[in-house]
Design a protein that fits this description.
Structural class: alpha+beta
Distance between the termini: 91 Å
Helix content: 10-25%
Number of strands: 35
Largest sheet: 6 strands, mixed
Length: 531
């Protein structure tokens, strides 16, 4: 059906009249003082950290969030935001348990409140508590509210930080020296415990780095993390050019540096290679731990049990008390997990663990051995329990994981820390070696059945010693950091120690090299620097 030209003109005029009439009516409403009905239904989203809550007419602009107590403390150190439906609000205002909160984009009004909120609310909250976020200003007329329900942590907090004095890190492949803080006054590198004043004065100094000659200076990022109960509460990171601005921003977080805090200083390259890490334990000004020094007061603990070996340095093993007689922890608790294969348990069935402190045998060490939900306290001279039967039962399923744990250590003359050594035995049949590529070899599990020593000069070339506890086929390989395979040698080795010669020509220039011994039991590795 054809529409005449006059009809098109008529329809066009009608549409224009309707549009003009609609605009006139809305203009009249505004002039008359009548409220203008919204064109769309408003929906707002309240963002705080990793949590979000929808606020809309459908829920009467109210909602509920659930989080644990540690998560809530982390929330307090994150700036909240409000999505208006078209963009982020320039300013967000609300009340948290009666405390007025303002968060303006691009301003520091919220960060200035963090210390007050943490002290008044964050440090006092308990699981099961209900916190109220009220008077959330949405559009000048509408207010929102959110109930925040605090829950208990459902699973034990994993000690992923491992905040022990011996967990500090220094990358010798990149650096020759790092000075962070007033080393000339505070002797930072030789200490673990610091007062609040010492911490703040230390971080005022820009980190100083000396690079190994074959690497040379690189862009570096500096990070500072605050921990509570071994969980990261808050952290900042910046490149060294903006370091002073980062330290200035940390002024709003002074409440996190009270005695009992653990603060981690770290350096890493722009490619995220870890360069340096140090934990600073904040204590009171009169705390006797401030006098402890690594080079004078620490000890080394060694454990050898069959193929399992562990060496932990820089343990104080010391009992101290404060002015009120309360015991002070010098070595924080930690969990050490190790993965082993089924074959590696054999020598453990009859042997007793051998303990050494500073290289001297400790025959009177008392400890607890746990497996399959059963725990046995092993006293000095007491024979080991029969582990053969329970292990055989556990391995009825060849893919089953068996755990054996050693903890609750006691020895006369030393204050042993709360250490847990967990050995995870896998019984997976392994008839194939991992792919002989750099990334695969670096990610492969290690094994105590094979050992690879550092290369040494031998004649015109180099030699490397390998050790195997079981007869095995093994491939010895040398790689560059870029993944180039410079050398490979396949051979079968009987139990014992063997020496393999490496041609000098494979090490083309000074630098870093990776050596791997690839076997069906796992991979042994060495990272070696040729000067």
């Amino acid at each position: 059906m054809k529409i005449k030209r006059t009809h098109w003109i008529s329809l066009y005029c009608t549409a224009c009249f309707c549009l003009l009439f609609s605009v006139w009516v809305r203009a009249y409403q505004v002039a008359d003082g009548s409220p203008v009905a919204p064109l769309t239904t408003a929906k707002y989203i309240f963002y705080w950290g990793k949590f979000q809550c929808d606020l809309s007419p459908a829920n009467n602009y109210s909602g509920q969030l659930e989080c644990t107590v540690p998560e809530f403390r982390q929330l307090l150190h994150r700036t909240p935001y409000l999505w208006t439906g078209t963009g982020m609000a320039a300013q967000l205002s609300f009340k948290l348990e009666g405390y007025t909160v303002h968060a303006t984009r691009g301003e520091n009004d919220y960060t200035a409140l963090i210390g007050t909120l943490d002290e008044a609310i964050g440090q006092k909250v308990e699981p099961g508590q209900l916190l109220r976020i009220t008077d959330i200003e949405l559009d000048g007329q509408t207010m929102g509210r959110i109930d925040l329900v605090l829950q208990a942590v459902s699973t034990p907090v994993q000690n992923t930080l491992q905040p022990t004095p011996w967990s500090n890190y220094f990358n010798v492949n990149y650096l020759e020296k790092v000075v962070w803080g007033r080393e000339d006054i505070y002797d930072n590198s030789n200490r673990d415990f610091f007062s609040e004043t010492e911490f703040w004065q230390s971080i005022q100094q820009l980190p100083y780095l000396e690079w190994v000659p074959y690497v040379g200076p690189q862009p570096v990022n500096a990070g500072i993390q605050f921990h509570n109960l071994w969980e990261a509460v808050f952290g900042m990171s910046s490149n060294l050019d903006a370091y002073s601005q980062m330290v200035e921003s940390l002024g709003s977080y002074r409440h996190l540096t009270k005695p009992g805090a653990v603060i981690t200083l770290n350096l890493h390259t722009a490619q995220h290679d870890r360069l340096f890490e140090k934990n600073m334990y904040i204590v009171a000004d009169d705390d006797p731990r401030l006098a402890l020094r690594r080079n004078r007061d620490t000890h080394t603990l060694e454990i050898k049990w069959g193929g399992y070996k562990e060496k932990i340095e820089n343990l104080y093993l010391l009992k101290l008390t404060d002015a009120r007689g309360a015991t002070l922890v010098t070595d924080p608790p930690a969990v050490v997990n190790r993965t082993m294969r089924k074959l590696e348990r054999k020598p453990m069935l009859t042997e007793q663990p051998e303990f050494r402190i500073d290289g001297q045998p400790v025959p009177d060490m008392v400890f607890r051995l746990s497996t399959q939900g059963k725990a046995t306290v092993i006293n000095s001279g007491q024979p080991m329990p029969d582990l053969e039967i329970p292990i055989a039962q556990e391995y009825a399923d060849s893919f089953h994981l068996l755990q054996i744990a050693l903890d609750s250590f006691h020895v006369p003359g030393y204050e042993m820390p709360d250490l847990h050594f967990v050995l995870n035995f896998y019984a997976m049949p392994q008839n194939l070696r991992v792919r002989n590529q750099l990334e695969s070899l670096k990610a492969a599990p290690e094994s105590t059945l094979v050992k690879l020593h550092e290369p040494a000069k031998a004649g015109d070339g180099y030699a490397v010693d390998i050790e195997v506890l079981e007869e095995t086929d093994a491939k010895l390989s040398v790689f560059t950091p870029e993944g180039e395979n410079l050398f490979s040698l396949d051979n079968k080795y009987p139990p014992g120690r063997h020496t393999v010669e490496l041609p000098r020509m494979i090490f083309r220039q000074p630098g870093r090299y990776f050596l791997f011994l690839n076997t069906v039991f796992g991979v042994a590795r060495q990272e070696w620097v040729l000067e």
